[in-house]
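For reproducibility, we list the full input for the protoporphyrin IX containing FE complex.
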Amino acid sequence: MATKELKQFTREEVEKHNKDGDLWIIIDAKVYDISRFKNLHPGGASILLDSEVAGQDATEAFFGLHRMEVLEKPQYQRLQIGTISGEDSVHHGRIAGEISQVPYAEPTWLTEGYYSPYYSKNHRTFQKACREFFDEYIYPDAQAREEDGKRPAQSVLDKMAELNMHAMRMGPGKHLQGLTLMNGLVKPEEFDYFHELIITQELARCGARGYGDGLLGGKVIGLPPVLNFGSDALKKKVLPDVLAGKKFICLAISEAMAGSDVMGLHTTATLSEDGKEWIVNGSKKWITNGTFADYFTTGVRTEDGLTVLLIERGPGVETKQIKTSYSTTAGTAYITFDNVRVPVENTLGEVGGGIFVILSNFNHERWAMCCASARSQRSIVEECLKWTAQRKAFGKPLNSQAVIRSKLAQMIARTESIQTWLENITYQMCNMTYKQQSSKLAGQIAFLKSYSTASGQETARDAVQIFGGRGITKSGMGRFVEHVSF
Ligand code: HEM
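The corresponding predicted structure, in tokenized form, follows.
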């Protein structure tokens, strides 16, 4: 499509187009002809004919009611016919890689004028590259998939694989050996938990939690048992495709009748007569990525107790979508296993030793949740700070009301304390062996997870109060707040 030539107008010229059938407005030094759009406007026609809007500068009114991205949609961009001569636009949407200038919208290590003992020059370069990548490739797909509920686009998974992002999301370790990470920005042996924290936080910053889980979230929790307890042959078969984003794996533990009570599982596995296969029967519920998973890291009850098996999708495995309070992008499933035959070579760890296999990844999994939780709360702080600065009530901006300021202060304090605690724990992880982490950090990580998720609920509740009805509306100004609240 040829780009339309934009003309220059004076404010006096625009003022003349102030009636039904000939209606112009100014938003951020740009002139829009809304004569025909008026009748299609989701907010109604009459408001656009108001004497303070028709032919006038409606910038303040517009940004008090719409997100910038409205004007970036092609169907609305087309309404622009020109600009005001001698004036420049000051509002802009998300610029790939940009650091937010809103106070507290970034952790201190990314805020100008602050220092941190934890992040090296390499972490900073890595963060910059990650932010650019996530803004450019992940954010648009995340927003589109949250809306249509479909699984993440394969093209995005492929792009991530080119950078070996799927492997990096598994944290530091042997699985990174020989890989080129982030186009060579970080050497495999130098990749540490701060690099992983950066990836997890940049993903959370996309503000799409169902999508975040859909983007191989099942792999982050379902692959470690294969990595740490699978035979070499099994790893050779499974790892390359999963780390290339070609195949999905999930962790299938919880059941309709047993959730946190892992030892109370009902799914059974009995050995075939020749002892070569397990025969699995039972069901699993709330399994992230289950609807599209190719592999299921599954907790089963065997004669000797709890055992973990890697089950491949095949005869007898059925998955159904569960509609949860977030989007179906996550692929949350109800799974049934009906006489599924699994080679005994797919046993992960000792027969009867499944609890150790499952528990072995809990610290890392909880820590990753804390990284994501800290970042999504910060994004909500940013949304609230922006909204309260532009929204006027009782003749002044919302952020000048004491009750609102108090809520904002509490939100910021919670977000800052979570990040600070998280960075301390991450530093310990970088310096401890796996064994030391298990004995010294299990408590710290569990407490932080409990604190950060509880704080996330308080922040979501406060944000809904600040946004009012918009905080429960899936589109428009409060859509990110709605997204974290339900
Ligand atoms: C080029 C100009 C405009 C476009 C493209 C536009 C587009 C939209 C869209 C897409 C919505 C649906 C909600 C959303 O996605 O945010 C909306 C809602 C609305 N618009 Fe506009 N709009 C324009 C100008 C204006 C102006 C100048 C005003 C008033 C001064 C206005 C008042 C409203 C109101 C009151 C709503 C309903 C808001 C709500 O539900 O909270 N619009 N508009």
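The chain has a mean pLDDT of 95. The longest strand covers residues 277-287. Both points were considered when choosing residues for closer inspection.
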